[in-house]
Design goal:
Layout (H helix, E strand, L loop, with lengths): L11 H6 L2 H11 L3 E4 L10 H30 L12 H33 L4 E3 L9 H17 L6 H27 L26 E5 L20 E8 L4 H9 L5 E5 L2 H4 L16 E5 L11 E3 L4 E3 L6 E3 L5 E4 L8 E2 L1 E3 L6 E3 L17
Helix pairs in contact: 2-5, 3-4, 3-6, 4-6
This protein binds FE2/S2 (inorganic) cluster.
């Protein structure tokens, strides 16, 4: 409170009887504020210029609402599952990210430009000079500042502009819905809906579906019709290769389907001999490796990014998303960053008949990050 004459202050009873205009003036006076200019932005009501300004503001809010709606629709229904470049539907798939990015961007931009326009064209641009004071605010200060805020709202004439109010409610409401859809969308979907079995999150395409089935380790060459399986002599010490499961008789379509699955990529790592001698194996997984070769899921145990980087000098597997690091010499246990679980290890061997790597079974623990039903 800046006044030096408390005896001039109105009593609480007088305060309650004062109009908003009087409170605004009192508030200015008490705070030593001098209103140099306090113009009404539209002194003549209902002019064409005023209506045009109103329509412009409403346009941006409405555009925001439409873009927000488009975002929600695209986020939920746009075909976002991976489609290979040589398949039908690739164009739609490749447009998913741009579409949700552009629609959400326009929705946020529309609200922003609408608010800026409204402030510029309808809120009075007063020039005021105010003295600063120390300490907290008194009851009088609080009452008068509320009156000031109400007065600003009143002078901005929002109350008599239903078009702007409705368009703002539409744009703001839909944008709110759009922002809610992002975190809620993942919770509404049934994670088991597209699984081959009811324990879909516990199993991966490496699971053997019949006795003595051979699931080979196949590399990606860029040509989906080229079958390239991996043999031990293909990798030098310190090398890493990304592999996917392949069964004899798999068709082109089966292979493309395998590439789409987030739970199938595996890092096959060949340790250098002197590093392999220092390996500490996980209890119960002592025979999961084949000599110097170790296979770990590529799905990070933090939030599921691909841990595509293997640094052979330190024997660390790196996840580029949040910089988690896993020690390949200690069953890929996390040694740095936010990940708290080791990377799941795939049991591998070499097929005696063909000389190619095979998996001897599925992972024995869930891959990737935590989920509600996960026990480990
Ligand atoms: Fe790998 Fe976060 S997803 S560190």
């Amino acid at each position: 409170m800046s006044t030096d004459k408390p005896e001039d202050l109105p009593s609480e009873e007088e305060l309650g009887q004062m109009s908003r205009d009087e409170l605004v003036k009192l508030g200015s006076k008490l705070d030593g504020v001098e209103l140099v200019e306090y113009p009404d932005p539209w002194p003549v009501k209902g002019t064409r210029a005023e209506k045009r300004a109103e329509r412009q503001v409403a346009f941006w809010f409405a555009l925001s609402g439409i873009a927000g709606l488009a975002f929600v629709v695209a986020f939920i229904w746009w075909p976002a599952r991976y489609v290979a470049p040589d398949q039908d539907g690739y164009l739609m798939y490749s447009l998913y990210t741009p579409v949700i990015g552009v629609t959400l961007g326009v929705a946020i931009l529309g609200i922003g430009i609408g608010v800026l326009n409204y402030t510029r064209k309808f809120v009075p641009h007063e020039i005021a000079v105010q003295q600063r004071h120390d300490g907290g605010s008194s009851e009088i200060d609080k009452a008068t500042i509320l009156a000031n805020l109400a007065d600003a709202g009143n002078r901005s004439t929002i109350a008599r502009r239903p078009m702007i109010k409705r368009s703002l409610a539409f744009g703001g409401g839909v944008l709110g819905l759009a922002l809610t859809a992002v975190p809620l969308g993942g919770l509404l979907r049934n994670p088991h809906a597209q699984s081959d079995n009811k324990d879909g999150l516990l199993h991966t395409p490496w699971q053997h579906t019949k006795k003595d089935e051979k699931v080979f380790l196949r590399r990606v060459t860029g040509d989906n019709d080229e079958l390239s399986l991996v043999r031990p002599e293909d990798l030098d010490g310190g090398a890493m290769e990304t592999v996917f499961p392949y069964r004899e008789g798999d068709t082109h379509e089966d292979w493309v389907k395998m590439l789409k699955r987030g739970d199938s990529p595996v890092m096959l790592i060949r340790l250098r001999p002197h590093d392999a001698a220092r390996v500490i194996k996980h209890e119960g997984q002592e025979d999961f490796n084949y000599g110097d070769y170790y296979a770990y899921t590529k799905i990070c145990s933090h939030v599921g990014c691909p841990t595509s980087l293997f640094e052979s000098r330190s024997n660390r597997i790196l996840c580029p998303c949040h910089q988690s690091q896993f020690d390949a010499l200690q069953y890929a246990k996390p040694v740095f960053g936010p990940a708290t679980r080791k990377l799941a290890q795939l049991p591998i061997a070499v097929d005696e008949e063909t000389g190619y790597f095979i998996s001897t079974g599925d992972f024995i623990e869930p891959i990737g990050p935590a989920y509600w039903e996960r026990k480990s």
